[in-house]
Amino acid sequence: MIPNGVVDLWQLNDPSLAGLLQIRTAIGFRPIALSFAILFNGASPLLRVQLDRKTGTVSTTIKLSTGSQLPAVGLGMWKVDKPIVPNLIEQSIRAGFRHFDCACDYGNEAEVGEGLQAAFNSGLCRREDLWITSKLWNTYHAAEHVKPALEKSLGDLQLDYLDLYLIHFPIAQKFVPIEHRYPPEWFFDPEVESPKIELAGVPVRETWEAMEELVDLGLVKNIGICNFNLQLLRDLLSYAKIRPAVLQVELHPRLTQEKLIRFCDDEDIAVTAFSPLGAESYFSIGMADPGESVLLQPEILEIAQRHQKTPAQIVLRFGVQRGLAIVPKTSRVERLAENLAIFDFELTEEEMNLILGMNQNRRFNDPGDFAEAAFNTFLPIYE
Ligand SMILES: NC(=O)c1ccc[n+]([C@@H]2O[C@H](COP(=O)([O-])OP(=O)(O)OC[C@H]3O[C@@H](n4cnc5c(N)ncnc54)[C@H](OP(=O)(O)O)[C@@H]3O)[C@@H](O)[C@H]2O)c1
Prior knowledge:
About 30% of the residues lie in helices and about 15% in strands. It has helices at about 85-95, 110-120, 145-155, 205-215, 230-240, 260-265, 300-305, 310-320, 335-340, 350-355, 365-375; strands at about 20-25, 35-40, 45-50, 55-65, 70, 75, 100, 130-135, 165, 225, 245-250, 270-275, 325. Bound molecules: NADP nicotinamide-adenine-dinucleotide phosphate. NADP nicotinamide-adenine-dinucleotide phosphate binds near residues 168, 227, 248, 280 and 330.
């Protein structure tokens, strides 16, 4: 059943495999040799696979430092047009998605809420079956704005708690009242002649302490950060009473960030890869050239051919096989099943290393570039 350590998890139906199966990677998050062992009640696995006996399907989750189980694959909601959101939510739940990556800034949380309500009301799933992430926008970093911002997201999503709330960027912008403009986006005042991003002097510590209060109030189960570098993370860890459970950053074959992932592994912070498909998300907004598509690279095409998988499945599998959560976005119902079907094969160590070798430290989503081009403001954050 386990030739060469490869397990076809989608076809596991051996009744002797009681209840919970766990897959353990021998490498932690490190990009070195990967070997799988099936363990029964094994100790702190990084990837844990649960078998649904009714459907014969599996879902994988990553155990967080808080004990919560983060589903390793979620549906990204950035740039999903409002009108299609409710149906996409329903179809994605039918396809097996249980994790949704939302944000105030995506401007579609009310529509996500509509889709979730429809799914609950029709009995498709229950709230507790899902993992819902949202993100605190930059204009709400001051302590007094954090809870109202969360409450607005909760109201739009029609939920009474979040599984994960993330600080979206380590960038504090001047406050824009919810009643004035929502989502506020990047410009402080888009109506003026030369609109700009305007910053506010709010320390991360103030924002983090307000995030911790949300956990104490039971409004969010886990808190974390996005787009933080190592220096900021170290600083945050020096005062955090509740440590960040998750760091969400851009990660794909052109930006592999080994040191950051290793640091998070050592600190027991789970890592979620955004833009896991690389350049794909950035063509339509002029932030990548079509020639930069990872999916068209000969290395990926060859591996895809070998495994009889699509290039996207290879790149997504690369992410989860590193022990990362991934949140691929698609607006197309026909791609939902494709993006989830990445647990029935394994990349070899050689293939993993080949893909790691494609790294170019190419960051597509960099405020140091896009804020000047699109928002008239020089705003580097990673240097
Ligand atoms: N925290 C942050 O600052 C931050 C920043 C960026 C993104 N995110 C989160 O991460 C999520 C994912 O990142 P992303 O949307 O930037 O990029 P992505 O998921 O890597 O790529 C999305 C793009 O790939 C296409 N695509 C999806 N599945 C495909 C497949 N099987 N084959 C070929 N193309 C496919 C999509 O087109 P179609 O829609 O046409 O399928 C879309 O153009 C976001 O939606 C958001 O939730 C967070």
